[in-house]
Each structure stands twice: as C-alpha cells, then as structure tokens.
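Worked example 4.2. Below are the chains of a multi-component assembly; read each line carefully before continuing.
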Amino acid sequence: MRREGPIILAGMAGLVSIISCFFGAPGFKVVKDELDQWFLIATNFMVLVGLINLTMIHWKRVSQKRAGWGYSVALLVAAYFFIVHGLVRGSVGDVQYKWMYNTFFAPMSGTMFSLLAFYIASAAYRAFRIRTAEATLLLVSAVLVMIGRVPIGSAIWDKFPSIASWIMDYPNNAGIRGIQLGATVGGMATALRILTGIERGHLGSDV
Amino acid sequence: MVFAKDMIATFWFVLAFSIASLTVISRARAGKNIPQISRVPGLDALDEAIGRATEMGRPVHFSPGIGDLSNAQTLAAFPLIGHVATQCARYDTQIIVTNRTPTVQPVTEEVVRQAYVAEGKLDRYSPDSVRFYSSEQFAYASACVGMMLRERPAANIMIGGFWAESLIIAETGSQIGAIQIAGTANTHQIPFFVAACDYCLLGEEMFAASAYLSKNPILMGALVAQDWAKMAMALVIAAGALVATFAPKATWLSDLLKK
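Applying the procedure described above to all two chains together yields the following structure tokens:
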C-alpha cells in the first residue's frame, strides 16, 4: 500500500485535472482549483524541507571546518537574515528588504547571467573546431546568421539579413518543431505512464 | 458534457493516443512481440560515465534541471536518477544530486535512498548526496559551479528542464574535464548542450530513457504508441503542406485542428 497509495492518489488527481481541462463541467473545475491550492500549499511547505537540507549540509561543513567553510557561514547568515527580516518587517513592501535584494542579490544574479556571453563564445569555439561535415554546416549557418543580424552585414551585402531570416525561419524552425512534437508526445506518454502507475521511477523503483 | 473552448481536436488526439498506448502495453503484458527501439548513444554512455567516475575515485553529479514537479521533463529525470544512483551504490561511487526546486528535493532524496536500499547499501547512503541549493535560478547555477570546481565530479549528467543556466553548468563541466551527458526538451538550450557536452538527448529521447534502460517490455510498449503518434502528426503536417500548396484558400484543415 506504501506504493499503491500515491499511485492511486496521483491517478485520481490527474484524471480530475484532465477532465476539467477538456470539459466545461463546473464541478470538476471546483475540485481542480482546490487541488491546485493544495499543490501550492505543499510547494511552500517543501521550501522548509529545502531550507533544512541546506542548513544541515552547510552547518556540517562549518562544524567540520571543511575547505571553504567561510562561504557556508556567509550563506547561512544571509539566508536566515533574509528570512527573519522578511518575517518581522515583511518582504514585498519593505524598503530595507527591497534595498538588500536590489543591492546584493540582483547584481550577483546578473553577474552569473552575464557569464553566459563568455561561455557561449568558448562553447561555440569548441563546436566549430570539430572537423566534421555537421560542424562545418553549423559554422557556415552560424556565421551567416551572425552577419545577417548585425548592421555591418547589410552594409557588406544587402542579402545577408534575408539569408539569416531564411535560415532561422525554415531549416531552424523545422528542426525545432520536430523536436517539440517529439517532446510533446514523449511528455504525454510519460504522464500517461505515471498516472496509470506503469512508471514508478519517481517512487524510487528501479527503471 | 460540454467541451472546453478549442479543445475538441486535442481531446480526440489525446484519447486516441491513450487507447493506442494502453493497447500496446496490454499486448506487451500478454507477452506478445514488441518492436525493438533504436540505440540511444547518450543513454548507453551513462554506465560508461559512472565507470569512469568509479575508476577516478571522483563523484558523479546529476542535475534534474530547474523545473518543478508539474514539468514532464523533471518527472522523466527521476527514473534516470534512480538508475545512476543504483549504479553508483553498486560501485561505491559518490553521487551528488543538486536541486533547485524545493518540491523536487524530497522526491530525489527518496529515489536515491531507495536505490541504495535496493542495492543493500543503505549504510553507504549519505544525506549530503542530495542537495538543495536555491530556488533562484542563477544562485542555483553558481552553487553548481562552485560544487563542480571544489569536488570535481568525473561525470556530469544534466537531464531535465533547463533554461539559461544550462551552459553555465555544462561549460564548467567541460572545464573540469568531466564526461558530460545532457538532455532537455527545451529547444533553446539543446544547441548549448550539443556544443558543450559529450552526449545530448534530444527531447523525446529523454522521455524514452526509463523504458530504454529498464528494457521492460511494458514500458517499451508505450514507446511504440509514441512512434505511432508521431507518424500521425507527420501525416497531418504533410496534409497541411499539400493543402497550403495546392489550395491556399482552403481553411477546413486548420479549422478542424483549431476546434
């Protein structure tokens, strides 16, 4: 029953969601909305589970003075300071909270995001360096798209922007849609397998 | 029963797909012959990656992406985590599963723990193996980068829903010389994975992974129905192309599909 219980519950919840998605019966919609609320509550409760895990791992690192334990101290202090401050003074409307978020968190997050530019360059360099027909095709199409998307491209030859648009709109779009169709069907099949209890990987069973 | 707006065609497609899937699954259950599926190099390489980590005495990192439990890609990653954790438990190799979504954390903990239980090595299971880093996308990415630079996993497996953090993690994996297997259905991230990783699972291959690795005929049966659905979609696309080419003013096909 330890395994069957969650499967039956998931199957029933999934069935209600599917029926309310396809049909306009108000009774199912009410149940689905209620289940959505339960999901939200469970999700928020899980943040606590995540926080406990985070605290345990970093506390162990600090207490054992492992390499880089100072970073763990910084993380724990920052995390709990934000939590306590948010609980005492509120978060969304509080000026101090907003200041801390904008001053500390947003720039650090932005810095990580900006690393992408350099990583794209290094990954592209490696991909283009491989001497295969596919890599050559990738290189030629990437160069054409890049030239076609910058002002100097049209200054060199006015057809570059049209070539870039053609590559993006037809071969690229066809590839993307092929992958998306396959993934959509794959997602449906996964959902069906989970709802009928055929797939139990999320319960810790063998694949 | 009244259909919701614009859902009639989708309903019939989903119903036909479900019936086809359940029919093939029941055939498989009855022991009838199910067609073989083609090889997926990325999935074949999983055991090779774990073996390499075992030989080098370094950990295996698994990221299920940053999607939550309502994302099919995250659900598709769980059986793979189970498989990788089982192999790691078998060969006494450390596994590190990193999570961004709080709801995914307890599920991955249970999947990894059960893998150790199944191998009879619960004493080897460390709660440190499954880590929640942050619910913020780039905080999670930076935590993964830090972990990879400090603990230097020999294998980096990223399978699930990934967004802009995909290349940050994959490039770090490349810098530390990890063998990298990645998979996602997010089409904007696939080029990053193709460029940065050794093996890449494209969209549906990720969803076929549990059947492929288990060789379970019932799960394999479900894949057959997936192929039938794709063939049906290809036929509709071909019909659409023909209608658009030879009768550009005809709208009956698009009207039918929009219903």
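Take a moment to check your reading of the output against the notes. Chain A has a mean pLDDT of 89. Residues 130-195 of chain A form one domain.
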